[in-house]
Amino acid sequence: MKIFEEISRKDHEQVAFCSDKETGLKAIIAIHNTTLGPALGGCRIWPYESEEAALRDVLRLSRGMTYKSAAAGLNLGGGKAVIIGDAKTIKCEKLFRVFGRFVQTLGGRYITAEDVGTSVQDMEWVRMETNFVTGISRTFGGSGDPSPLTAFGVFQGIRAALTWHLGNDSLVGKTVLVQGVGQVGFSLLQHLIPAGAKIIATDVDERNINRVLAEYPSVQFVAPHSIYDVPCDIFAPCALGGVVNDDTIPRLQCKIIAGSANNVLAEEDKHSADLAARGILYVPDFVISAGGLINVANELVGYERKQALRQVTGIYDIVMDIFNIAKEEDITTLDAAKALAERRIYNLGRIKHTYVGTPMLKRARV
Ligand code: NAD
To answer: Is 256 exposed, middle or buried (0-12, 13-18, 19+ CB in 10 A)?
Structure first.
């Protein structure tokens, strides 16, 4: 692999390889773009089959964060870290403290957070060595579990899609398919059911199904493989990526796809076009699932739940802007979301040419 070619292919600014013999830490921190602000993104632990696979993943994920932050209107850039290894065996205080020290050496250009394989507890160890960490528990002034805010953002995206597609945002009598009733899916039900939606759900974990039925006995469950064939108004994938693909698109009987699952389209360009051709309104995943990111970003200015909720409510307007761009420019909603993010980076990048005199106030809004 030609490392510099790989790094410059998608315009990454910086990649740091972090190694520590004592703990066995092998981490890669990628900073994609810091035009809007410091690069924020989680730290993933994964047993990558090769170092090349780890590098490719961190480059892909960090670039995704640039788009996610920019589209959400945050003053943050895109970054991500990966630690190579099995989370079940390598996690310990020492490892996270060494990782935290590496994060500190980047001087705030990268801010870390939880991701697949890491937890609030792990970030508290990281916090012992660096100021540049979010996703801390409420006890330490952090924002705690991001899932409820992610779900609240998905709910706003669903409301916007209903308004655009059907003329109003009422969920009364609407059927919503929820794929995955884990942390986000369960919280989403807490908004959809009181709003009058009929829920059909699926999950592979009996405990999560029982938790839903204990609170909402009216929820109807179907087998995981048959969820794509159920007629509904909205399909809300809140489990896995890649579930919208060549096999499932012809089977889908929904008007709208709006859920939290990351990378929900198996092939972005092809499948966003296929959905548009079938008249299915797709709310881009990186926009509708930004509630959790907005939540952790608020830690950087002193966390206040009310402010975070207010900002997450704004996902409604952002989704509407995306639909408008898609219509005016005759492009898919996915391309419109990317265009919105790129235009914001371009426009705000230009104002940085202006000399502002004395240093900026430390507490700019995220
Ligand atoms: P989770 O692990 O708590 O929930 C996922 C649920 O999906 C689980 O109940 C699991 O049993 C179920 N599931 C797994 N495979 C399934 C299948 N084949 N069919 C049906 N159900 C299946 O995860 P989460 O935190 O709720 O996140 C859900 C999705 O949203 C993930 O893709 C995640 O990356 C994304 N996301 C989460 C957040 C957040 O704040 N938690 C933020 C942004 C994006």
So the answer is: buried
